[in-house]
Amino acid sequence: MNEHTKAKHLDPVYKKLAQLLDTIPNGFPATESGVELRLLAKLFTPEEAALALHLKLTPGYAEDIAKRTGDDPQTLETNLKRMFAKGLIRMKRGEKGPVFGLMPFIVGIYEMQIGRMDEELARLFEEYYQESYHKVGKTKPSVHRVIPVEQAVQVGVKVLPYESASEILSHAQSWGVLDCICRVQRKLLGHQCEHPINSCLVFSSKPNAYDKAKIIKPLTKGEALEVLRQAEEAGLVHTASNHSGELDYI
Question: Judging by DSSP bridges, how do beta strands 198-204 and 174-179 pair with one another?
Fold first, then answer.
């Protein structure tokens, strides 16, 4: 059975989920081989994929999502928390408890697989990337923008506060770092990168946001700035979401 045939025999829920993810501005375009469906099947159980179809980009409480699914709110919240722990959906603190929402495949689901990345997942993503690389992230405006650090800016060039990496970090209340999923994935395929792996910064406006995180190492602000400095010395380019609102990663 070839890969195209394997994709055809997967649960139809994966095609529905792929189509939903492709409606997000970041995109999740279909491929001729259907590798994106095999990729989703590696990450989601059919039940998890079906539940994700009821989520929206704007996070909602389990009791509100339960009105769409017909499930018991408490059972649903338990299942959603399990999906969050697997890096499949977004979970944030709401006024009345946790809220849950859909997140893009890139940047989002893929990056949160650092704790689950194995050779099979690395191969599936590589196949998907090679077949759809000319489509993923090619939206306008761009999903990412470059964030300069002060030392890299030429004299006379003004950097606005929301464009300054150190300024962005200084406004946060919690900081953390995790391995670069791209370098981990490529290493599993025999293409090890010479640059630092532990270099992806995350931060939050809420205190102690990463104290219980499994794949994120909590940092102090000083430690986060040091990670930024080391990345700069390694010649890496800093990027973040392409908007001037509250950012949560560099």
Answer: antiparallel
